[in-house]
Specification:
mainly beta; 42% strand; Jelly Rolls
Length: 430
Amino acid sequence: MKKLFSILAASALVAGMATSCQAPNTLSASEEAEGWQLLFDGETLNGWRDFNGKELTNGWTVVDGCIQASGEGGDASGYIVTDKQYANFELMWDWKLTKGGNSGMLYHVLEGPRFKVPYVTGPEYQLIDVEGWEEINNAKLEEWQKIGVDYAMHLPDQSKMKVNPVGKWNTSKIVFDNGHVEHWLNGEKILEFEAWTEDWFAKKASGKWGDATEYGLAHEGLICLQDHGDPASFRNIKIKELPKKAGDKVSLFNGKDLTGWELFGSMRTSVDEEGNLVTQNGEDLQYGYLGTREYYKDFDLTVEFKQESNGNAGLFFHSFVHGGYKSNVVNGWQCEVAPKNCDTGGIYESYGRGWLIQIPDEKETILKEGEWNTLRLRVEGDKVETWLNGQEMIKIEDKLIGSKTGRIMLQIHDGNNIIVKWKNFNLTKL
């Protein structure tokens, strides 16, 4: 009788546990109170679309409360992204693969006609059946290609890896908190690192991403699921946004060398005896750019410049480069820095619309040619404002600007004998 009672009590306990388990693709009251949001409702793919597209057209479906990749994708296709961009967050999801399956979860993904695939911008939490993949392909994966890695960048602690068998559900989590990154797998923290440190940039430069100029630089972007040619299933995809740190002050130039900057295209740079940054034409007299290594989205920047010769230059923002470090193909927006009567302080777009706003003719006299000028550029959401020598030059609102992010870049125009000096870069993050 005692044994029977124990069995019944145990059965009742199991049943109670089963009924108390949270249903997939739902949030508990405590999760809702903490700010968690579902990225998948369990029934539709609302909120998701093709990468670089406006609709969902490829082989992703909802089957039995799961997002399912058909396995028809590959390296060049098969990606879906969220409609919304995210900056700082905790992202959790359940996943399972077929034998030899290969997939991934990416974040901070940027779109644009020149970004053909998401992984050239967005870091990836790798999902792969290592043993099955190696068996099917008769090849060995590199350590940086295996499950749980920050793909081609950081390796997990193998002693903490607990992976359920193929066909069983696993739970993963990514924490991105103002550059602090964690990877979790089945309740264990397997990886932790800091983005945008000297070590991070060294890893980027020395590995797979050495020529991927914009990889990992974005501070916000889209969440992305990958169909890499194998069926994969996802559920319980949820995110909790974390606050952005604002008010940090950044001095972009140290007055000694180009630490924190990267050179693109044709430009000669130097630091003179007074600690000024000197930019001028390269030997081929084509466009050249000096860009920050990091991205800045909302900011208030002041900088002083002096046009020593010609002065046809620019201060770019929300900008990025295509084609490697020798390229001078830049997309973004330019706060004009140019000779008198050429709209210094106006905003020009390199995406194709050209001039968004030029300065009034009566303000052309504010520029002091051959002398030091103070330029202020404030970008916050859709709003852009500029001042020259303390006087407002333009004010504009533009949704496309507000939707983008990117580098701050100094331009030297094509031509001959252009020399511009810069100093006192002071930026406040908004």
